[in-house]
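Apologies for my clumsy wording, but can you show me some protein sequence, whichever is easiest, together with the matching structure tokens, please?
=====
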Amino acid sequence: MSQQSILVVEDEPIIADDIATSLEAFGYRVHDVVGNVAAALDSIAQKLPDLALVDINLEGEKSGIELGQQFHSHYKLPFMYITSYFDEETINSVKKTHPLAYIIKPFDDRDLRVNLELAFAKQQVQPAITGKFFVKQNNQLIAVEPQNITHVEAIDNYAYVYTPEAKYMVSHTLKSIEEKLSGYGFV
């Protein structure tokens, strides 16, 4: 099994190095360490990482929030914010970008590790190239034919995916599932 790769977007070199060292100690592969939006976009142009850690206050004209919006809208790249900002205006701006997590600095390795594990667990529902929709149940991936899905029921940040044979609970919003199924003609 290949290591999950993580892009670090942090303009403070000492913090960036600490994060990269921690990621490697956790068993992740550091995709790249960059300090601004342009460098981050250049880095992912070659190959997308599995996840990005993004500081909000970056060097240059564009912020990490703008980068997060691009990651979400254009690249469908999962990301988490790592920042010292927690004012209401920042939080409201962040909500619109749909991060997997928001870690407030200073944080320790436990905070980072737990949030990474939870972020990767949230990625449990994945449409595959084979035309299947995958759900995780009892620590196993189960392939569901999209045409067999009869309906989806939302409950807060979770949803139930129904087929004639079974009901699967997934930790995704209805909107997220709708986006994943839209390519299969699911309405």
The mean pLDDT is 86.
